[in-house]
Specification:
The structure is a single chain. By secondary structure, this protein is of the alpha/beta class. The chain contains 18 helices and 16 strands. Strands 2-1-3-6-7 form a 5-stranded parallel sheet, sandwiched between helices. A 5-stranded parallel sheet has the order 9-10-13-8-14. A two-stranded antiparallel ribbon has the order 4-5. Helix 10 crosses helix 12, helix 13 crosses helix 15 and helix 16 crosses helix 17. The longest helix has 31 residues. It is elongated and about 85 Å long. About 4% of the residues have low confidence.
Length: 452
């Protein structure tokens, strides 16, 4: 195993506990051995385990009787049943109750190690498959960490150093710059690479849901709480907890998060027992939190707790050398998905890609290429297929955004402003409301400026 892993042994024979401990500690595991079901359940309450060895016969009680309660405390933990009285019936019963393996006594050290490795590896594989599905759903085709830009190369070198630490990190940047992708990239280069990566979407955390979502709840804690539930913090134990759009938290949610960040302790809703968490915190925002603090919308003490190390992701317009390669990458990706072949960008289109400032960053570029892949009538993608104006003949491409007060026309300013608002809003209706116009007028202006 590349990272530390933890094992709980429940066996009433001290000799068996010691032999399993020696086998697994030699394999890099942290091992806790207990002789009673009460001790095992208390251990499962205090901390998370990667695998449990459970003796089928515990003097006056049956190990099968305590198995369901173990899985209620930690639903995902793999349980390996061990017994000196092996039978087909007991093995089937153990599997029905949720055990993942069955180890008859006497066993060899290699059998113990193999059973533990197999259980932990299967858990890791399931987690990786789940995360892969999330990545495919959220960020298919992302390739934002390959660059020709020297400044961005320096930025990534800094990120690599920060990733190796365990410090709290605040990721800042405009909408669409890939803060969630960067957070995963950092996790993959940290000592917690094989541990869970759990995302908390902070705008979804109302005051009422904050404690239950983050910290879990006990059965009966509120109406509808029909069973115990672990929270995001417990899901991320040993790994990384990513707080996405942390600037959107309500005042009450900020206070509860601050308490957790101070000492990494928490309680499940409806439970007085204090729990300790071992998680690394990454947070992200596209808001200027200093301004939010001044306006009284964000707690200053929470800002200081999150702002240990700040990484500000450069917008795409500051990486002009990477725009066309990224667009070509997206084109290849969506070409395969849509079943099209040999799509290319025309020279006019590449010039337009470079000229446009991409206020929605990677997300906007990705969406534009996907739309063109579906709708372009020809194998050669033109600026109009991307919703862009081609640069006038003889005009060199540029990537700088329109700057107020510079030598630009009012039309250029209006076009840039509309493009940025549309890129960061969820719908044309929301964009029109911000711009103070109706949707019909917005569509007309988008068509006029080549943004349609």
């Amino acid at each position: 195993m590349k990272t530390p892993w933890s094992v709980l042994i429940l066996d009433d024979d001290p000799g068996v506990r010691q032999s399993i401990r020696l086998c697994l500690e030699a394999d890099g595991a942290r091992v806790l051995g207990v002789g009673t079901s009460t001790g095992a359940l208390e251990a499962l309450e205090r901390g998370r385990f990667d695998v449990v060895f459970l003796d089928l016969w515990l003097k006056a009680e049956s190990g099968l009787a305590v198995l369901p309660e173990m899985l209620r405390r930690q639903p995902a933990v793999p349980v390996i049943v061990i017994t000196a009285y092996a039978s087909y019936e007991s093995a089937v019963e153990a599997m029905k109750l949720g055990a993942v393996d069955y180890l008859p006594k006497p066993f060899t050290p290699e059998q113990v190690r193999n059973a533990a490795r197999r259980a932990v590896s299967e858990t890791l594989l399931k987690r990786q498959l789940l995360e892969l599905r999330e990545r495919i759903d959220e960020n298919e085709g992302e390739l934002i960490f390959e660059t020709r830009d020297p400044a961005y190369q320096t930025f990534l070198q800094t990120v690599q150093r920060v990733a190796a630490s365990d410090s709290v990190v605040l990721l800042r940047g405009e909408s669409g710059t890939g803060k969630n992708v960067l957070a995963r990239w950092m996790r993959d280069r940290s000592r917690r690479a094989e541990r869970p990566f759990v995302t908390v979407h902070c705008p979804m955390l109302s005051s009422d849901l904050m404690s239950s979502t983050l910290f879990g709840h006990c059965r009966g804690a509120f109406t509808g709480a029909v069973a115990d539930a672990v929270g995001k913090v417990e899901e991320a134990e040993g790994g990384t907890l990513f707080l996405d759009e942390v600037g959107e938290l309500s005042a009450d949610a900020q206070a509860r998060l601050l308490r957790f960040l101070n000492d990494r302790t928490y309680e499940r809703l409806g439970e007085a027992k204090e729990r300790q968490a071992d998680v690394r915190i990454l947070a992200a925002t596209n808001r200027a939190l200093e301004d939010e603090v001044k306006a009284g919308r964000f707690r200053e003490d929470l800002f200081f707790r999150l702002n240990v190390i700040t990484l500000t992701i450069p917008p795409l317009r500051e990486r002009p050398q990477d725009i066309v390669p990224l667009a070509k990458h997206y084109l290849r990706f969506f070409e395969r998905r849509q079943g099209r072949r040999q799509l290319t960008f025309s020279p006019r289109c590449e010039a337009a890609l470079m000229r446009y400032s991409w206020p929605g960053n990677y997300r906007e570029l990705r969406n534009a290429v996907e739309r063109a892949t579906i709708l372009a009538p020809s194998a050669v993608i033109e600026p109009e297929d991307l919703g862009l104006n081609a640069p006038p003949s003889g005009e060199p491409p540029h990537s700088a955004a329109v700057v107020l007060g510079s030598d630009v026309s009012l039309e250029e300013i209006e076009r840039e402003h509309i493009a940025r608002v549309v890129a960061r809003t969820a719908s044309f209706e929301a964009a029109a409301k911000i711009l103070g116009i109706d949707v019909t007028t917005l569509q007309r202006k988008r068509k006029r400026y080549g943004l349609a």
